Every structure is written in structure tokens, then in C-alpha cells.
Amino acid sequence: MPEHRSPVVVPEHFRKFLVTDDFDRYGLVPGQPTPTPQYLQVELTDLCNLACAGCLRAVHESSGRHLSLETFVALLDQLPDLGHVSFVGGGEALIVRDFAAYVQACTDRSVFTSTNTNGLLVRRRLEPVLDAGLGLIAISVDGADDATLGRMRSGLRLSQLSTALREAAALTEGRETGLSAAVTLSSANLEQFPAIVDFVADHGLTRISVESLHHWGEDKTLNAESLFALQVQDVVPQLEAGLARADERAVELSIFDYSRLGSPAAANAVCPWPWDASYITKDGDVTPCCVHMESSPGNVLGNIHEAPMAEIWASKPYRSLRDSFTEGPAWSSCEGCVYRMEFGRV
Fold it and tell me: What is the pLDDT of residues 69-86, one digit of tens each?
């Protein structure tokens, strides 16, 4: 007999924190891709100054290569309707010395930009990027004590993270750039969620985004530590304790609809990515999403050095991938995808 799971009911006062799904969040319709990508996640480099437990850099070495500015500008010019570029990948974007030039190229074309960072280079590298018009910077905050943070973030100390948050708050003050904390929860740090909210709020940040740890491509090892792999009755009280702290501290927090933790239907959710978004690697490979940030023969849909992005977007491989989600994912790497369970259309 299958295990009976009682449905999770989200209290009304916590519903304001929920992202129902990415189709609602971004105005998408399953089965109706946008004419060209509206959102690109771009990996400028695979170099990083950390090798975090939840990142593929912990198990796969960096190549040291980066996406050239010339290639990036040519890509922008192919997509006049592009709305958002997120400089997030298997590396730390602030390592790229001319990162500001990439942001400026977007600003000149009225394209919103964002990036995530571990915070170590905020003091030395962030200001010119802000001057170039960066729209949002998110700093990863995955622990509230040295032991937990060190496990999650490759030995990063709380004092270093504290300095990064304070520096980022000072540098963004008076600017239009948004500042947020990005929290990835798993079995390793779930109990610290309320303390993490307090830590963020104590540093003057008022925005937090929350996701579960998830796998990378065909390597699904990390899924065993995701929130969806844990017992629902153990996860929900911890999540709601953190949401209660966000409520008390007046923090603008976003999290997936965690009633999905008790819903078998979540496993068959339609992926939101291929309808308006793509991931571009440092080598110009196009994959469908950030879960496939390390390209392999099985997940590459094209390469921007070999074909225009609009052509790749409308290609047979992309159409086949989209069609597969009406019957179940065609790619084994998409099966059991935690991001799809969090933000897909159930």
C-alpha cells in the first residue's frame, strides 16, 4: 500500500509569501512559448572562489574559460525583446574583471540584470557593477552559525558573510539596485531557517528568496537532501517558524507553495523554464535551465557560436522538449526535478 500523506494546508497569514508557480509569476501559458527568450541565465565563467556542497563546482573542476564580451553583446543584439539577464552559473560572476561591461551592455539596451554572489568579492568588485546599472544582487545566506555555514558554503565564516551583507547594504543605499538574500534550504540547514531570517534582517536586508536544494543534470545525489526528500511533518513546522520570523521582522520573503510537499501531483508538474527562458554556458552552449548548467551531449539544444539564438529557440530539439512535458519529461535528467516540483504548473 502506498504511504498515506495528509495534505499540507498553508495558514492564510503565510500565503502572502507563496509563489504559486512560475507560470503565474511570469505570466506564462503552458504550451505557448514566447517568440524569443525573455529571460537568460548567463554563465560568464565557471571559476569560483568557493566549492560549495550544493554546487556542481564541489565535484567538477573549473575550466577557467569565460564567455567573451563580444559574444555576449552579439547575443543581446539578436534579442531586442529580451527583458532580464541573470548572471548566475557554475562560477562567481564578480570574478570576471570586466563584469561591469556586461551589465552596461544590458543597461544600454534597457535589459534588467541580476546576479547571485557568495559575497567574498563584494567590497572589491561590486561598486563598478552597480554603477553600470545592476538591477538586483542576491547574496547567498545558507547558515546562521559557522559550522552550518561552513558545511554549506565551503568553509565560509559568518563574520565574512556579515561583512559582505553590510558592505552590500552600504553600496546599494540610495541606488535603484535591489538587495536580497538567497536562501537554499536542505536537510543540513532547515532547522536554522528562523535564525537565518533573523540574521538577514539584523543586517538591514528586507528581501529573501527561498528555494530547496536540488540536483544538477543527471547527478541526482543532492535530491536526497532536498526538502521534498524529507518527512513532511518534519519540514513544515520549520518552514512556518521561519515564515513567522519573516512576518515579525517585516521581511518580504518568497517561497514555493510548500503544500506541494505532500502532493504526489508535484512530481508531474510542467516545467516553467522552456516557455520563456534559456541557460547559456560560458562556452555558448544553450541548455534549457539552470539544473542543466553543466552542458553534456544529452542536454545541449544548440550553441550561440554556431546558430542565432532565435533559431535555437524554435528548433526541433526545443519543441520536442516542450512537448514532452504534456506527457511526462523526455529527459531522464528532468525526472524527479525539485525545481519543477517547486515552481512548475501542477
Answer: 999 999 999 999 999 999
